[in-house]
Amino acid sequence: MQSSSLLFSLRQALGSGDGGRALELLGVLHREGYPAALLRPVLASCHPGLDPHYLDLALLPPALLLAPRIPELLAEVPLDPLRLQQAHGCDRATFLKRHLQAVLQGARPLYAGLPAIDLRHYHQLVQLHRSRRPWLRRLSALECLALEAEAGLESPLSALSRWAPSDHDRLLTRPWVWLALPEHQGDAAQFAQALGIPSVCQVGSSQAEAAQLADQAARLALEGGGWFILWTGDGSPPAAWAPLLQGVLADGGSPLVQLGTDAGGVTEVLPPRPSSSPALLAISASWLARRQPRQIQAFVRHWLEGPPPSIKPRIDPGLLPRPLEPRRPRQLSGTLVLAATQAHLDAHGLDALQHRAQAQAVLGGFSQAEVWPLQAQPLASIAAAAGEQAVLAFIGPADELAPAAWRRLAAVLAWRPDLLLCSDEELLGSTESQRIGQRQFAAAPTPFRLLSRGHLPGLVALPAKEMVNLDLQPRYGSLHALLRDLGLQWLEQGGAIETLPEALLRREPHSNPTLLAISTPAQRQLFTADQLLELEQLSLRRAPAWLAPGARLQPGPRQGSVLLRYAPGPSARVSVIIPFRDQAQLTRTCVLSLLEQAGPTPLELVLVDNGSTEAEAIALAEELAPLAAAQGISLIGLRDDSPFNFAALNNRARQHCSGSFLLFLNNDIRFESPRPIEALLDPFALASTGAVSARLLFEDGTIQHQGLAAAPRQPHDILSPGKGLRPGFATEPFAALELPEQWSAATAACLLMRTADFDRLGGFDESFVVAYNDVDLCWRLTAEGRAVIVTPEPRIIHAESKSRGDDIAGEKRNRLARESGALRRRYPTLFQVGDPLYHRFLGPASHRFEPMALPVGPRAPSRARLLHSWVRPQWRKPGERPLLIYVHWDGQGLVRADVFEQLRAYRAHADLVFVSAAPALLEQPAAMAQLRELCAVVLVRHNEGYDFGSWQAGLVFCRRWIDRVPLLILTNDSCYGPLHSVEDLFRRLAASQADVVGLTESTAIRSHLQSYFMAYRPRLIRTALFWAFWEQIGIWGEKIDLVRAYEVGWSGVLVDAGFRMETLYLAGQHGNVTHTHWRQLLEELHFPFLKTELLRLNPIRQDIAAWYAVASACNPRVAAMISHHLAADRA
Questions:
Q1: d(C-alpha 296, C-alpha 312), whole Å
Q2: Residue 487 contacts residue 456 (beta carbons within 8 Å)
């Protein structure tokens, strides 16, 4: 039946009240994909008053949509009556009339335990969620939401896991282990408990105890690190030293950290040394893990007994390096201040609030608690009574603290007592205080964020003595207003604000409202009118210190937000630089849209023709100049025939500009809202603004750009938050996408700067030819303390890369890799530690501000599962030569001809162990015979654990010999070759002094040696760390997780432990050089191999058309083998 007939039949069924027939017809229309917009009028007649956006069978079940028209269908509505009664206090019919709309719009939760979330937003989450997406094949979004209550938000499979308690803070903690000295054996547990250390390890004079300590240190190093704590005092260590030690360890950098005492009190001891006075020594697990048991014994003995008397002549102290100045922590006390409005005091009573404050102080570890009625004079009295060494921390009347929150604050403030410190936060469910979730992942406060939305998140703490220097209002209507005021004054007076990444506060937003980073509709309407008026007045009062001349403020679109407006002086002028090559219509559309939407700001257009060959493009500037002149705008046409270099084109064009501002613009930009230049100028109302960009949309209306952040420890360099989202309900939860926001960088597809700033920085760095020149420019700006702001206000379309194509293949990909490598080398901290303006626990590959995935472990240990083992009977003196373990896999059990060539070449330099994970190899007698001829050991096993599982099996089998070998090499069959003699490779290897040597490295995720060929020297082989790593090899669900843990992670562990690593070929190059530089490796460096993946899959689309000619010039025989294998593989 045709859709029009179905729709006619549906109207008939509704008219006759035939609910069963109507449900059947709706089901057919839904399965056939009948457009929701065309079905909406019929559904609206059934459910009058319901927001039309939700009249959609993908969102709501048919029975619910029809029930108001046909009441007997209420029984078919798939919602739990008991859960509705618990959450809304009514039956289904009443729920549909009174509460359904609020639930759909995110003003109320559907069931107790669920968050209040816009159903369209939830539908989008389910569509993107791998484990929940299949639900949508048979259920509406509302039915899926109802099922979430049964599954529980804590489930990792939930699409609502954002609203479950976050477990990310455990990633910040490194375990401490108490080292129990012989004289403290009986008191070890008590001493450890004094510092909150749960684990105790015996340390004495025996080699067995030292070996046990090395094993434990190795396990901790592989799990991310840890510390062993040694105490040399007679009694129990002071409990107050725990946060002091925690704070100094958090700074990192030294494997040995010591706290002791002198006449001035507690101090950091530099350099660490044995002491007769009580002292705590923290020893890095990585530092211990690289040492032999005898070295650990000697170290402990040295620490306990002191160094032996020196027989060396005394050195003139003047010749010694000047020692570092040890830091001295302050012994601080914490006062928890519960801030309550008069309404809270009237509702709950002072005694009840004081009792709650005391309970939270005990939970958080504070020494005292006070209730403060949000008036200046009582707060000054609290600060004075707390004393010089006190810290005040603020919570709302129904907020909760994370356990031991004070210890975490004190760990930082004891060493840096002049900070204003805040934290991340989670929210308490409004209807049930036990539900904790919706972590905010709050970013660092800045003047722009404080001024525009009062951004001072979480548990806020500052020195009590500094309160006297602040100009407080007589009273405040909300804690948010006080903290905004404190923050702005603190920064104005030159104070520093830092944010701890931990969620130390659990906010109840109804009693302590704020402008949340991630919110539901109901959470965006919590301020009263009086509170909003106070916030507006407070902003006006504090703003002049931060604003440029011509600036003003106005209330923003979200409660508590402020928009900056800017009217530059009469001499201000914006020079718009637009490079282009051919594609005249694209550039014409860009210029005409700007002319059509232009406001009153004087403009100057500079069109840079970068070598156009089409007549229409060559004449474009002459064509457009009169149109611009008609609006009083000058248009300059420049011809620049140099090779394309975006940075250089703009730098040269700037010399022809007369404006006080420069707007860099791609020619595939189109303006679709009035006064876009004025909207871009507005953030310059903040005097410290350095650059401004805008939300840019793809042609389909989804976000292409709304700010950029560094993506640490990822294959990609830059994250573009919001990309792919459609402005509206998909972006409304995120304040950073709905309001102007500060980012560390923005795209130069549309970037406005002051000309003076651009000139002072020297313009774009021209070594970044196409990519990252804008990011580099912005990061140089931010290094000067300038802010990069992105505004969502103008509507701008960006047909990205239409003018020059995408950087996805061949030489373009290689150029991108080179520029990426240059960026990473210039800003290593951003790519290892993270972007300071973006929370470290936000997913570095998510555009939706999703939490990063927590680390996963292997599903099971990898087992050897040997099917066959053979050892050459005539193997003489095993362990005297280098040992090379070569691992192999082939689905059919075949061994490539070139693999035998590799083994023959390697045999001259090492004894060979061949490990195959292809059981079918046992059915290839000729191949097995060749392997026995070439190798000292042949093992065949089931395929488990990928190559790392095979290396593990080979290592375990050969361990009796490995402790004696001068060199251990682990390699695999992922390369074709040898196309050159391996003699040069082994000469390079012999010349290296490193502990671990690889042929090539990759900087993706983190700089690491590529695992296909790694050589280990005895200094590493004989450590507990080496064997602990190979013992924990497991089976992973996803290969990328295995690569992160074993290939990338293992290199990181070795670097952290202090082992020296070296790359033999093309060290320091970014990307996978075995793909991007394959030709240079073969022709110039005589590299012996070609990666099989390059020739078989070519995943990054390199130009390999000449591979056979290049390979044949090196070794025609092996090249023919490779060609034959590729032909057979394709067949």
A1: 25
A2: yes
Classified as helix, coil or strand, 551 is: strand
Query: In which residue are the tokens 């100049």 written?
Result: 625
Q: What confidence category does residue 431 fall into, taking pLDDT thresholds of 50, 70 and 90?
A: very low
Between CA 78 and CA 58 the distance in angstroms is 14
How many C-beta neighbours within 10 Å does residue 701 have?
Answer: 11
- Dig out the tokens for 574 from the structure: 């914006």
* Residues in Cβ contact with 844 at an 8 Å cutoff, skipping those fewer than 6 apart: 711, 712, 713, 714, 719, 852
Sign, Cα dihedral of 960, 963, 969, 970: positive
Q: How far apart are CA 1079 and CA 1077, in angstroms?
A: 6
Predicted confidence at residue 364, as pLDDT, reads 96
Structural contact between residues 101 and 88, judged by C-beta atoms closer than 8 angstroms: no
Instruction: Give just the sign of the alpha carbon dihedral 420, 425, 429, 435.
Output: negative
What CA–CA distance (Å, rounded) separates 741 from 705?
Answer: 13
| Rounded Cα–Cα distance for residues 145 and 104 (Å) | 11
Q: What is the side-by-side order of every strand in the sheet holding 1013-1016?
A: 866-871, 937-941, 911-916, 883-888, 968-972, 1013-1016, 996-998, 1061-1063
- Could you give the C-alpha distances from 726 to 615, 702, 730, 733, 789, in angstroms and in order? 38, 4, 6, 12, 20
Q: What are phi and psi of 499, to 5 degrees?
A: -120, 125
The per-residue pLDDT for range 482-539, each reduced to its tens digit, is 999 999 999 999 999 999 999 999 999 999 999 999 998 889 999 999 999 999 999 9
The label of the residue with tokens 């472990």 reads: 857
Q: Which of 1, 67, 4 is nearest to 38 (CA)?
A: 4
For residue range 139-163, what is the model confidence (pLDDT) as tens digits? 999 999 999 988 777 777 888 888 8
Task: State CA 647 to chain mean position distance.
Answer: 28
**Residues ≥6 apart with Cβ < 8 Å to 700:** none
Highest-pLDDT range among 159-173, 202-216, 941-955, 1040-1054: 941-955
Contact 663, 750 (CB under 8 A): yes
User: What token pair was written down for 206?
Assistant: 């025996």
What spatial distance separates the first Cα and last Cα of the chain, rounded to whole Å?
47
- Beta-bridge mates of residue 1063: 998
| CA separation for the pair 801, 803 (Å, rounded) | 5
CA-wise closest residue to 124 among 837, 732, 821: 732
Phi, psi at residue 481, to the nearest 5°?
-65, -45
Cα torsion through 17, 22, 23, 28, rounded to 10: 180
In this structure, which topology does domain 574-832 adopt according to CATH?
A: Spore Coat Polysaccharide Biosynthesis Protein SpsA; Chain A (3.90.550)
Largest CA distance in the chain: 110
Q: Determine contact, residues 758/690, Cβ cutoff 8 Å.
A: no
pTM above 0.85, yes or no: yes
User: Quick one: pLDDT at residue 316?
Assistant: 53
Q: Which amino acid is at 383?
A: A
Cα separation, 1021 vs 292, in Å, equals 11
Strands 866-871 and 883-888: unpaired
Give the type of residue at 130: R
Percent of the chain's residues with pLDDT above 90: 72
- Give CATH 3.90.550.10 domain extents, the chain: 333-545, 574-832
Q: What does the block give as tokens for 850?
A: 């999703």
Strand extents, DSSP E, 621-702: 634-639, 661-665, 669-671, 689-697
Q: What would be the CATH architecture of the domain defined by 333-545? A: Alpha-Beta Complex (3.90)
* Topology annotation, domain 860-1069: Spore Coat Polysaccharide Biosynthesis Protein SpsA; Chain A (3.90.550)
Contact 140, 30 (CB under 8 A): no
Half-sphere exposure of 519 (CA within 13 A, CB side): 24
Q: What is the DSSP string of 656-678?
A: T---SEEEEE-TTEEE-SS-HHH
Residue 173, both tokens: 């903690």
